[in-house]
């Protein structure tokens, strides 16, 4: 029994080994047969493409070599934008002005000499014509701003030399030639002063009133109010002068210009011969503004009124 069992076991082991070998051979044969089938499928797909259609190529990015990629990595990710371009007109404005030519300087000096001769010869109208030509030369060579400065300098020199008729003409020329210029307010104010020196009080009043109406917020406007009241007073237009002072006090309430207007009322009333009203105006001012810098002047004028009244009584 034992020998028979051994034989049977040997047979079954051989059968199992053969079965395993057979399975392995079948698996190997299947794997070999799949490779040509895959290759033949790809060839079949490629053969189905039209003849005139190019083969599909990878995108350009995929064709970049490693050297290209390395060069790209060395470049900065963000580059600085170019600086702003300066416009040509700004470049021209920043350039240094060219020095005046010798011809221009000689012509300017000749016109100034002629202007001096005509002014001293009393030829005011001719001098104004020469001044206009001089300003035209400066405008062409150095611009409007410089021409305005020259005009104001020439007029100021005439005013400083007490040549008020010529100064009036020069200021009028400046205002007519540069009505929107930088020095309009100053030219108007000085023109009023020159007219006042010439005792042309109506002209001075007109100029100062125009300054106030057109440039009421200018720094010189409060002084123009004072001069306007003075021009009216010198024309014996007392009520107009008082009205100007009243308007001035209201416009500049809380400032020294209000204090001046309140104090000045007493002087205008005294000039009009309204002595009692003048005394009352001075007293009201001293009571309302006891620390004003005009208190001394008000007290002095009150004392003069008292002396005048005493002398008038003594003569009666």
Structure description:
The chain has 316 residues and is mainly alpha-helical. The protein is built from 15 helices and no strands. Among the domains are: 81 residues, no CATH class; 48 residues, no CATH class; 81 residues.
Brief summary:
By secondary structure, the protein is mostly helical.
Q: Give the uncertain stretches in residue-range form.
A: 32-59, 61-84, 89-94
Order of helices and strands: HHHHHHHHHHHHHHH
Overall number of strands: 0
Largest sheet: none
Tally of helical runs: 15
Helix content percent band: over 70%
Average pLDDT, all residues: 78
**Cα distance spanning the termini:** 189 Å
Q: What fraction strand?
A: under 5%
Note the overall shape. elongated
* Rg, Cα atoms, Å: 53 Å
Q: What structural class results from the helix and strand content?
A: mainly alpha
